[in-house]
Write a structure and sequence with these properties.
This protein has 405 residues and is mostly helical. It is 57% helix and 4% strand. The strands form two sheets. Strands 1-2 form a two-stranded antiparallel sheet. A two-stranded parallel ribbon has the order 3-4. Helix 2 crosses helix 5, helix 5 crosses helix 15 and helix 9 runs antiparallel to helix 10. It starts with 6 loop residues before the first strand and ends with a helix.
């Protein structure tokens, strides 16, 4: 913000003025919104006052769309290549067990919510398999985790075992020149843990933790070709850490996550709420057939809250019991047991002589670091690739699964 005080006269033409130099307007949205705001800044840069230059507008990065970019990066690495679907220990084999009726959709264009569930469910089974392998290695008599749980081990022992698993069953130091078959499950669990770490921090409103997760995903997303997200993530970190004054820094951090329900673990990104409102505006109440026009959507947009209030009123007056669209959690016990049995047979955490692999998981973090270092000093960084990026379309299922997380 400039030190020059901007003045805005009231509509009555009086001499009263409002000084806006110490005020900002926080604007949440996706990358398309951020790019339009940047265009406004460039066009208004020739103006003489901060007000006309729109210096009071501060764009806040939408974390819901960032999660979608993380999901898309993991899909491009573990599922999109045809060679990645042919190994016995590949993620696509897990998909055939976890979601047998959706293998075609997940292999071609899964969207956010399908991949989100695949990562959550597969990660649970892979981590349980790590526990089972390590417990059986220490105590051969414990052939299953149920037998181990029946002994009621002490909490300190479980913590020590968990630390050992984190240090030895995930990739800590990747070597781009050496390919080890055991590195594939280690890298898979590492990238899945990074995604779960980001999701957990967002759900609990830990903004500092979210910012600590940014750099890992900057490198991963950069390695998969989504350069727009890299640019905006780096810009957010530099602004919050070095450019913004303390008051503005606090305001931005307080607005990057909100808690509409006011319950623990229910923090959500503001752009998720915007997408939900857009879906109500365009899809549910936007009209159908010949009535689905831009003018009709604009006319109905101001009535959306009235429609929703009327629905709630009818539901309450008719004493309807289920006043929510949130479904009960699916019972995944049998599915997880089948998944665990498959992991027990394939033994992904053990090197078996003669077992080959048709797909090598790329070293995303090292690859992204090298790409960022190579791009330093070039303002037109990857401009050719930026134009080729595709934004993932948000559907009602994507918004619903994120609300219910």
């Amino acid at each position: 913000m400039s030190d020059n005080n901007s003045q805005v006269a009231d509509s009555g033409g009086s001499q009263a003025v409002i000084y806006v130099s110490n005020h900002v307007f926080l604007f949440n949205g996706d990358l398309g919104t951020g790019e339009k705001i940047d265009v406004f800044f460039e066009k208004r840069s020739i103006e003489q006052t901060p007000w006309l230059q729109l210096q009071f507008v501060v764009f806040v990065l939408g974390l819901f769309h960032l999660k979608m970019a993380c999901i898309d990066a993991l899909w491009k690495v573990f599922i999109q290549p045809h060679s990645a679907q042919e190994d016995k220990t590949c993620l696509m084999k897990d998909v055939s067990i976890l979601h047998p009726r959706e293998t075609g959709s997940i292999a071609s264009k899964p969207g956010f919510w399908r991949m989100h569930q695949v990562i959550q469910h597969a990660s649970i089974c892979w981590q349980l398999n790590c526990w089972q392998v390590e417990v059986q290695k220490r105590e051969p008599a414990h052939s299953s985790l149920k037998l181990f749980a029946m002994l009621k081990p002490l909490l300190d022992y479980l913590k020590a075992l968990a630390n050992h698993l984190a240090m030895n069953y995930t990739a800590r130091k990747e070597k781009s020149q050496i390919f080890d078959l055991r590195s594939k499950p280690l890298l898979l669990k590492k990238y899945f843990c990074l995604y779960e770490d980001l999701t957990f921090a967002m759900n609990h409103g830990d903004v500092g933790h979210v910012e600590c997760c940014f750099m890992s995903w900057v490198w991963i997303i950069k390695a998969t070709g989504k350069h727009k997200y890299v640019k905006h993530m780096m810009k957010y970190l530099s602004n919050v850490q070095f450019l913004y004054p303390p008051g503005l820094r606090k305001a931005v951090r307080y607005s990057i996550l909100i808690n509409p329900l006011g319950k623990p673990g229910c923090f959500r990104a503001p752009d998720l709420c915007l997408e939900l409102n857009n879906l109500y505006t365009k899809a549910k109440y936007g009209g159908t057939g010949v009535n689905y026009t831009e003018q009709h959507i604009i006319n109905k947009s101001v009535l959306i809250q009235i429609y929703r209030d009327l629905h709630l009123t009818f539901e309450r007056n008719l004493v309807l019991g289920n006043l929510t669209t949130k479904h009960a959690e699916p019972n995944m016990t049998q599915t997880f047991e089948a998944m665990m049995e498959n992991l027990k047979k394939t033994r992904p955490h053990k090197i078996i002589p003669g077992r080959g692999s048709k797909h090598q998981i790329p070293n995303l973090i090292d690859k992204g670091q090298c790409a960022l270092l190579a791009a330093q000093g070039h303002e037109a960084m990857d401009t050719n690739n930026v134009a080729a990026e595709e934004e993932t379309e948000v559907t009602l299922a994507d918004v619903t699964v994120e609300i219910e997380v």
